[in-house]
Amino acid sequence: MVILSKELNSAKKVILITGGDGFIGGGLVNYFSGLNGYYVMASSRKFHPSKSKDFIFLPNLDVDHSNGWIEALRGVDCVVHCAAKYHIKNEANLDLLSICRKINVAGTMRLAKLAVAAGVKRFIFLSSLKVNGEISPVGMPFNENDPPNPTYPYGISKYEAEQALLEFGRESGLEIVIIRPPPVYGPRVKANFLAMMKFLNLRLPMPLAGIHNLRSYIGVNNLFDFIHVCIEHPKATGEIFLVSDDDDLSTTQLLNQMGKALEKIPVLFSLPKKLLTSAANLTGKKYIPELLFSNFQADISKARNVLDWHPIFTVEEGMQKTARAFLRRS
User: Fold this and answer.
1) What are φ and ψ of residue 106, in 5° steps?
2) What is the spatial distance between Cα 196 and Cα 200, in angstroms, rounded to a whole number?
3) How confident is the model at residue 23 (pLDDT cuts 50, 70, 90)?
4) What CA–CA distance (Å, rounded) separates 111 from 117?
5) Whole-structure pTM over 0.90, yes or no?
6) Containing domain of residue 174, as a range?
7) Is residue 204 domain-resident?
8) Which CATH number is 154's domain given?
9) What is the total count of domains within the chain?
């Protein structure tokens, strides 16, 4: 295990990023190791040890147990907790909420308590806009003052972790910052974004023309910039923030933006919503109509007013970065 020197601690702010092999965590490692004034420790369950003058990967660290964490956290100024349980194969015999709670709640609190024991000052928790709910009312984007309304196991577990962290922060003095992003896109994106780009790149027809909902998204570079602000800003402590690109899109607009970035004109046509909903139900993907037709918006006024933050990249710039990375891998 690496023990950080006093010279390093005095020269640079040391941050530890959990989930260093993930889409967001891995991007954060590259982002902060490219900035002056930071030394990055990245925990991972998979990576082999690697080290440079600006970062080191620490393998075999899992929030499911305490082994190795105190040594890893000693000398760290701030933890950015990205590791989480999200994608779970939905099988009838699985208790999805218990699985999510084990990692997202119990694992998070285990890490927070170990961070205090090691002398860490600030703990940034990457939560989810799903804590607010799955559908925002028309013309009423979610904000931090709305009563939480998580519906599915992931959102419920994230909300429970938020509440436990805030209480623990008040008791222990650990500076807690909670960030609720909407869906995140960027290089190495997976899940629905990746599926849509594959369809667009192959110019496969999609029945998604003429949809007029509004949904918030955030590009990884905007998210990384916001996390950077939360590490440094004194007013971030004890707060919950909603973030986005501040440029909400309908499903149809999102596909058009992606197509433009990929230089592929989307092949879109219209089908009645009832027909699409029936097809989704028949294939066991009842959540799909919710993603395609509903509003899911975030009001980022608090981030602007409290932290003086605004997105530094446009949606178009973010999509272009995402498309270039996708095409390199294709």
Assistant:
1) -60, -45
2) 6
3) very high
4) 10
5) yes
6) 6-188+217-246+296-312
7) no
8) 3.40.50.720
9) 1
